[in-house]
Amino acid sequence: MNSTEPYSNSNAISNDSSRFCPINPQHISISVLICLTFLVGFLLNVFSLWVFTCRTPEWTSNTVLQFHLAVSDVLLCPMGPFMAVYYHTVNWSFGKAFCRLKIALISFHIYTSILFLTLISIHRYVVVVRYNQVSHMNRKDFVQKLCAGVWLFVLIKGTVLAAVLDTSNVDNRTLCLSIHQGQYTDFYFIVNFTILIPGLLLSFLVSAICYTLLVRSMSHLDTSHDSGQAIKSKSCKMVAVCLVIFVVCFTPMNVARSVGLVVKKFLPNECSLLLKVETAYYVSWILAGANCCLDPIIYCFSCQKFTKTLRISLRKIGLRLEMSHGESS
């Protein structure tokens, strides 16, 4: 009996502290855009997996990295509708087990995406800049071990987060992974500023260095031949897409979450500010979901087989649409 009282009292205190600020549902437009973004991302990445598994008989180390990145995107996309409903109602009605699954999948997706994009950056640098040197990044078996290590790391981290975090009842609402869960404020704060933000900054720094060296190398590339011009064009476009994903998709979500945790911990009575930051965080999930839509563009720039299959599929779709239009006419 005595062993449970401290937890109960701290939980009650946390719930009381969270009542300083009201819990307001978000605008329906945010939920609609989240659903659309994750739906498009799901379709694009299912198509990507089909190309990799059924239309690419010989895999390279680059194909392995892209395949695992597509798997990471597909895992989270089906969670989009549930997240959209929750953000609009601010009431988790899908049970504790599904809440833990949501926490694990979010952790899996975000940080596997960041790590695989970083590995793709390193791989592109090695292939283009150090093409005449022997490197482990050119070996498919080594890259497969790297991917297995990434999945093991995020599996452990996601499992720990899912085991520690749970739903909370606040103001007659059931919350899941919410800033209004007062009993988890300190935990959110520590994990965010000791693991999540440093991990993002380190990955972005490594990618930026690789792409800076890559662009510098491209400036000295002989473009008098068509092959040299094609390599330079595709590499520069790939640089642009990857940097856009880091800056536009991942940075706003991490910034909004960090600011929200600072406000919640040190300025708990600034309700209007907390509401604005909370809304910004939900909007940033639209941008984070756009990552699933932008990743297939990388596959087009780095895999000729992927681009060719995509063009053939689009032609078949266009032909079928023309035939159906002709029959209806």
UniProtKB/TrEMBL annotation:
Parts of the chain that traverse the membrane: 28-52, 64-88, 108-126, 146-165, 187-215, 236-259, 279-301
Gene Ontology cellular component terms for the protein in this record: plasma membrane
InterPro entries, A to Z: GPCR_Rhodpsn, GPCR_Rhodpsn_7TM
One GO MF term attached to the UniProt entry: G protein-coupled receptor activity
Membrane topology: Multi-pass membrane protein
Domain of life per record: Eukaryota
Record localization: Cell membrane
PROSITE patterns xrefs: G_PROTEIN_RECEP_F1_1, G_PROTEIN_RECEP_F1_2
Key word Cell membrane present: yes
Keyword Membrane assigned: yes
Keywords, ordered alphabetically: Cell membrane, G-protein coupled receptor, Membrane, Receptor, Transducer, Transmembrane, Transmembrane helix
Domain G-protein coupled receptors family 1 profile: 44-299
Pfam name, any one: 7tm_1
The family this protein is said to belong to: Belongs to the G-protein coupled receptor 1 family.
UniProt protein name: P2Y purinoceptor 4
Organism: Carassius auratus
